Each structure stands twice: as C-alpha cells, then as structure tokens.
Amino acid sequence: MKWSDFDGEYMSVIQQKTGTPLTIYTPSRLQDYLVQLPKRGTFILARNLTQHLSKRAVQKSVETVREAIGVAGIGNPDRLVVHGWRYTAVTQLADAGVSDSDIQAVSGHKTLAMIIKYRQKANQKKASKRAQIAR
User: Fold this and answer.
1) Which tens digits make up the pLDDT trace of 22-66?
2) What are the residue ranges of helices labelled H in the chain?
C-alpha cells in the first residue's frame, strides 16, 4: 500500500482474491499508528524509498513475531497466519453483531454466501444474547 492510499481515516485497497477496489475505514488504533510513522518513500511497508515489501518478506516478519510470542508451528491451534486474517476479521465482526452486508464491505467478499460460510464460527452464545435482548 502506498502512503497516498491512506487519507488519515480510510485506506484504499484492491482485494487480492477478487480484484475489487475497496475503501476501508481504519480503526483509530491503526490511524494513530500510521500517523506517527515517518513517511519515507512511496510505500507504507517499504523495502526502500521506491519498492514495497514483498509478500514473502511480510510473511517472514509475521513468522518472526509468531515465534517470539509462542504461537508458531504447524498444528498449533493458536498459530497466526496471514491467510487467516480475513477469516478472523469476518468472525470478529460477526461476533460483534455486524450485519452481513457491512462485513462484506470490509472483507471484500463478492457474495454474501462466502460471508455466511466464514462467519459460521462466530460465537453462537453471544449471538443468542444479542437476539434475545433485541426482541
């Protein structure tokens, strides 16, 4: 992502799997973090002034963090993987009671069927409480 993709509140991205352009609201903690970073070069995650970090370099950085916090290793149920972040976001949004269409606006999934598939792990217990309070 380029610095020009971030306007201080929203990030413009292209959803990698679908190619869909999205404008995503960034949570305040991310806004605060990005605002304080020095803006050297074109890219937020930069190899140098003109090149972005490669996907593999980002994955390697995540692996290093996983090892440092003890959640590395295939078979570890708490293992953090970049590929699963969108799935995790969908589940967390569903747990928070966010509508399917709003989840789709964040995740970039082309169909609501995919949202339903991915949010199946949302916390049923929390959902039952929200539903009962709402009636």
Assistant:
1) 999 999 999 999 999 999 999 999 999 999 999 889 888 888 888
2) 28-36, 55-69, 85-95, 100-107, 112-118, 124-134
CA 105-107-112 angle, 5° bins: 70
Q: What are 11-23's pLDDT values in tens digits? A: 999 988 788 899 9
Burial of 52 (0-12, 13-18, 19+ CB in 10 A): middle
Place of tokens 């190619």: 19
Q: How far apart are CA 89 and CA 119, in angstroms?
A: 9
Task: List the structure tokens of 46.
Answer: 């930069």
